[in-house]
Specification:
By secondary structure, the protein is an alpha+beta fold. It folds into 5 domains: about 130 residues, no CATH class; about 120 residues, no CATH class; about 130 residues, no CATH class; about 70 residues, no CATH class; about 210 residues, Restriction Endonuclease. It is built from 31 helices and 27 strands. The protein has a 6-stranded antiparallel sheet, sandwiched between helices. A 5-stranded antiparallel sheet has the order 8-9-10-11-12, covered by helices on one side. Strands 18-19-20-21-22 form a 5-stranded mixed sheet, with helices on both faces.
């Protein structure tokens, strides 16, 4: 056993630290050399190194060898210091000779790692005190590439020594950001020309090793590594802790000469080509370049409601996957414009089943991950090659859709659905979309938790709307851990309104409507005698709003600013249409797409609700003509509205019992369908009575003046031409009391519209006339609606005393005008039917 004095002479503090950093306990080798490690050393020499290799090692150690009787191995064994040093190098080299051979670019011999050459090259590096560099590269490469990678941007060149000093100073920054105030150490740095390597140690505790003199404390902790690739300009932080990676990114961006962005590998694919390739193949079978078949056996969908009515796991239909996909597309469940619609794809290749998972990250970006459980590596590689050759889609890289709008829609939707995002892990594409949303006032400017500041220390300008500093043109960095995502409701409404207003064929109006004491901001679109109301909300619309539009049978489009699949079905079940805000924002760049989409919404909603309006109107007509004993005031108000809405389509059910505000019972838009006359609004208040003397109308004049003035100032009423006629409709009115009411109401009332009384019979007979000739009127509406609009807007002088009224004679004249208008245009149309008999 070597003497302790020799040990102190050989193993200095620097030597001990050198080998400890390489995970080699040199003290243990010295203390147990004769009893244990000497024999192991000799065995390793005999096994791993040839005689020529030993001679080369002797030359490296400057030991003379002139073919003595003593074997070469004995020369090393007798020189304890050299033997222990060589044993440390052998132990180090044989820890992972294959990895070291790859780093040192040592070619294999007969498909086996050249371990002898690895040992000799390690000795050469040790002589230059660069063995730690090799160990650093090995340790960093051992962790792989799937960690935190950031792009480097900037014009100034990085200097290795300056960059090392920045990392050395970052230790205090990392400690200040650490919740446990853990100490960090920069252990080693190595300049490999095209790459710079750095190792950090996060201290987790101290250990006392008795083999080291004076019971020296040794720091224990977790190593993590930084690799800066100068050629490709990216920084790879190899750690499992995202906090460490992003804190380093923030500090380097702040103190270094280049800006860091999160980076991931990506590739572009064409979804139409992918789905066409799948759907055009018969029997789910594809053939690779070697002639082996790739058979699509099963699929999983991201939407949970797609398997309704189609059992993908039925043994009789399992092989008909393609037919099932086609059925789902025809039913509208699948669009087939993005691979993210699928959750996984299963294939059979060369007798083995492979599952390809389609994974979405938290930003909505997708990539393909091959499930590799219990599969040989060579089989996995062959399947990947066959898959890529068949479908031209890469694995493990984020997939960019060839149609950029689809990816952008998914990213915007992901951002809008979050209330808080981490500021230190935002990819550049996400940051650009975030600032664009802030600039367009979809999202409020974050002011509490994070700031987007100019990196120039002499400027430090804060902005969320520019891609670079508006003052000096420098890059911008986000400071702070979290960014609050708060939607700007007024800004969203303004963006939607302004975009729709650009479409010339649309007449667009924004207004507020009160329903049950709550105000709702709405947008109306009028297009080709049809209308639709738009309501923007971040969650499920209120029950009051939905019920109001259902009772009014009015078309409604819900735009969801925070879009979720679970919200769609209840809206559709209620009979309304739904659109997510992210899709609208993506399509804004092409006004033609927006125009086509909203025309489809208008046509679809008006068609669906028109059928319901027809049904409700006919039911109300039958209920009125067969009035039951229980028939009351509310029934009369409902039936009158339903009949008038079927006649004029665009209407609104008002009244205190409906909306919680003081208003008449209803209002409709009367459209003459003529270029020479414009549309206008007709409002009414119903009065129902079963008394013998009729309804005695003694209402305060202020009440009805309030109704008229309120409607006259209403933005929506103005949008549809303004209020022109206000009517009292009754089936049994006391005309004496009505005359007194009219005189009080009209006296010194400055409104220039018509206040008229209409008997229920006029409405019923007009409706009956319309229903009997509905087909002709629908095909050519002007001959009917032009005279009818005049009847409601222009009161004959003979019918104005003692108070304005629409008389039976006026209705007869309208019927005559309508007949004359259609004669000659409808060859086989007969106005005289048994079902149609006006009993005046």
């Amino acid at each position: 056993m070597p003497a302790k004095s020799d040990k102190r002479k050989f193993i200095s503090t620097e030597t001990r630290d050198y080998w400890n950093n390489l995970h080699i306990n040199v003290d243990s080798f010295w203390d147990n050399w004769e009893g244990k490690y000497k024999s192991e050393f000799e065995r390793k020499i005999k096994k791993e190194i040839s005689e020529s290799g030993l001679k080369e090692i002797l030359e490296l150690y400057n030991i003379q060898y002139k073919k003595p009787k003593t074997p070469i191995i004995k020369i090393f064994s007798d020189n304890v210091e050299t033997a222990i040093e060589l044993f440390c190098i052998i132990r180090f080299s044989l820890n992972n000779p294959k990895a070291y051979a790859r780093i040192l670019k040592i070619p294999p011999i007969k498909d086996k790692t050249n371990r002898e050459r690895v040992i000799i090259e390690s000795i050469k590096l040790h002589k230059k005190s660069r063995l730690a560099d090799l160990f650093l590269v090995y340790s960093a490469d051992k962790l792989g590439d799937n960690h935190f990678t950031f792009n480097l941007t900037g014009d100034e060149e990085q200097n290795f020594e300056e960059f090392r000093k920045i990392l050395d100073k970052s230790r205090r920054f990392l400690k200040s950001r650490d919740k446990q105030q853990t100490v960090y150490h920069l252990r080693h740095a190595f300049d490999a020309n095209d790459k710079w390597y750095f190792s950090f140690l996060k201290k987790t505790g101290d250990d006392i090793i008795s083999a080291i003199p004076n019971n020296k404390r040794v720091i224990r902790g977790q190593y993590f590594y930084l690799v800066l690739d100068k050629k490709n300009e990216f920084l790879n932080v190899k750690t499992r802790s995202k906090e460490i990676a992003y804190n380093l990114r923030d500090y380097i961006s702040l103190k270094g000469t280049k800006r860091l962005y999160f980076k991931h590998s990506s590739s572009t694919y064409t979804p139409t080509s992918f789905f066409d390739t799948i759907l055009q193949k018969s029997g789910n079978i594809f053939t690779d370049e070697l002639g082996k078949e790739i058979i699509l056996t099963d699929v999983g969908f991201r939407k949970t409601n797609l398997n309704v009515g189609i059992d993908l796991h039925d043994p009789d239909t399992k092989h008909k996957v393609l037919e099932q996909i086609v059925i789902l597309k025809e039913q509208g469940h699948l669009v087939l414009n993005d691979i993210s619609e699928f959750k996984y794809l299963k294939f059979n290749y060369n007798g083995l089943e492979y599952k390809v998972n389609i994974v979405l990250n938290k930003w909505g970006q997708c990539k393909l991950i091959l499930s590799d459980s219990n599969k040989p590596k060579i089989d996995l590689e062959n399947f990947q090659k066959a898959f890529i050759a068949s479908f031209n889609i890469e694995f493990k890289s984020y997939l960019n859709n060839a149609n950029a709008e689809i990816d952008r829609t998914r990213i915007i939707n992901t951002l809008l659905n979050k209330k808080t995002i981490e500021s230190n892990n935002i990819p550049e594409i996400i940051e650009n979309e975030l600032t664009a949303l802030v600039k367009s006032k979809i999202i409020l400017k974050p002011i509490n938790c994070a700031k987007r500041r100019c990196e120039n220390d002499t400027c430090r300008q804060i902005t969320w709307v520019d891609k670079e500093c508006p003052k000096c043109g420098s890059d911008l960095i986000i400071e702070g851990k979290h960014i609050d995502i708060n939607l700007d409701e007024k800004g969203i409404k303004k963006v939607v309104f302004n975009e729709l207003k650009k479409i010339k064929i649309f007449a667009v109006k924004t207004y507020e409507k009160q329903i049950n004491r709550k105000k709702y901001a709405l947008i109306d679109i009028y297009y080709e005698n049809k209308s639709i109301t738009i309501y923007i909300c971040s969650a499920s619309p209120s029950t009051d709003l939905v019920n109001y539009f259902k009772r009014s049978a009015s078309p409604l489009l819900i735009i969801l600013s925070r879009f979720k699949e679970s919200l769609i079905q209840p809206i559709i079940n209620a009979g309304f249409s739904c659109l997510d805000l992210s899709t609208f924002l993506t399509e804004m760049e092409d006004s033609v797409n927006v125009e086509e989409r909203f025309i489809q919404f208008i046509e679809k909603q008006n068609h669906e609700w028109y059928q319901r309006i027809l049904k409700k109107g006919y039911e109300s007509y039958n209920r009125i003509i067969t009035r039951a004993n229980s028939y009351g005031e509310m029934d009369f108000e409902t039936d009158t509205y339903n009949i008038l809405q079927e006649l004029f389509i665009i209407g609104d059910r008002l009244g205190g019992k409906m909306t919680g505000v003081k208003a008449p019972d209803g209002i409709v838009v009367i459209n003459p369908h003529s270029k020479s006359r414009s549309k206008f609004c007709f409002a009414w208040d119903c009065k129902f009575s079963v008394l013998e003397n009729g309804y005695e109308l003694n209402d305060d004049k202020a009440k009805h003046r309030f109704y008229i003035n309120t409607l006259n100032k209403n933005d929506k009423v103005k949008f549809y031409g303004g209020l022109k006629t206000y009517a009292i409709i009754s089936q049994n009115m006391n005309l004496t009391t009505y005359q007194n009411f009219y005189n009080r109401l009209s006296k010194r009332f400055r409104w220039k519209g018509n206040i008229v009384f209409i008997d229920e019979r006029i409405i019923i007979e007009l409706y009956r006339f319309y229903k009997e000739n509905q087909a002709l009127i629908s095909s050519n509406p002007e001959p009917f609606y032009r005279p009818v609009s005049e009847m409601f807007s222009i009161i004959w002088k003979v019918n104005q005393q003692p108070f304005p009224i629409i008389s039976d004679e006026r209705l007869k004249s309208i019927v005559t005008r309508v007949k004359n208008g259609y004669e000659g245009k409808a060859k086989d149309f007969d106005f005289e039917r048994k079902e149609f008999d006006l009993n005046f």
